[in-house]
Amino acid sequence: DAPETLKSRPPVVAIMGHVDHGKTSLLDALRGTDVVKGEAGGITQHMGAYQIKTKGGDLVTFLDTPGHAAFTQMRMRGANVTDIVILVVAADDGIMPQTIEAINHTKAAGVPMIVAINKIDKHEANAQRVRERLLEHEVVVEAMSGDVQDVEISAKTGVGLDELIEKILLQAELMELKANPDREAEATVIEAKLDKGKGPLATVLVNRGTLKVGDILVVGTESGRVRAMLDDKGRQVKAAPPSMPVEVLGIGGVPMAGDKLTVVESEQRAREVSSYRQEQ
Ligand code: GTP
Ligand code: NA
Ligand code: MG
């Protein structure tokens, strides 16, 4: 086989932290949308996947994760499909149980972390206290002579968001993230559900290759053919290159979050692989 041609791909950035520290608000501010208001009780209960284009034209993929204690599995998965973790810590509330848990998942996954000290607009904000408390969990930020980047932000006023994006892009550049877009796609399921009208729906993140409408696929123990794909704004797309999150229609059943999606050459091959996997 000819050697693969690798091309640079956008970083996949997971936003983690304690409940209500402002993860979804941060994503809203970066995307210019208002997801929080649409959430029941303002609580994130699933992993959202979004791609934004920065002022310089670079793409960054973000995964939103819930801070609620019940969602440990999702945070773990988030850390595992991710290149960079943004640890959001509210400057008024400080280090809390899910902050510590997110630090532990990130370290276990071996993923670089950027600390975003949020809600800096509040009177009670104490960023220095956050930095000091992080030391207790062996997260040493630059301001404390360490090598973990930190930035003070407000998802409410927008302060510090440009600096945060700069730090993400700088970290991504150091990592030289690459994938071959010119091959059959491999992707990871971020979340999946059964939609009454559309049938099984899976939000997947393309790891390598390009996923196309018409592709025959196996995902977990399910198989199917890509009937349509929607981007994070609900627009139909024909192809999804590496690091792009898309919602896939046309899978025979609902796969599980974390399942691997593989494109195969024929429906017969798809059936063989999925029945083999069902027997395991
Ligand atoms: P979960 O998904 O439930 O874990 O919460 P989250 O981390 O996504 O927090 P969310 O974005 O839902 O924000 C929680 C609350 O904090 C909301 O009322 C936001 O309006 C508020 N908030 C978020 N960021 C800021 C900020 O920078 N400043 C101020 N003052 N309030 C903020
Ligand atoms: Na919330
Ligand atoms: Mg949220």
Automatic annotation (TrEMBL):
Residues 8-178 form the Tr-type G domain. Signal peptide: none annotated. It is found in: Cytoplasm. GTP binds at residues 17-24, 64-68, 118-121. Residues 113-140 form a coiled coil. One of the essential components for the initiation of protein synthesis. Protects formylmethionyl-tRNA from spontaneous hydrolysis and promotes its binding to the 30S ribosomal subunits. Also involved in the hydrolysis of GTP during the formation of the 70S ribosomal complex. Belongs to the TRAFAC class translation factor GTPase superfamily. Classic translation factor GTPase family. IF-2 subfamily. This is Translation initiation factor IF-2. It comes from Novosphingobium clariflavum. The chain holds residues 434 to 713 of 943 of the full protein.
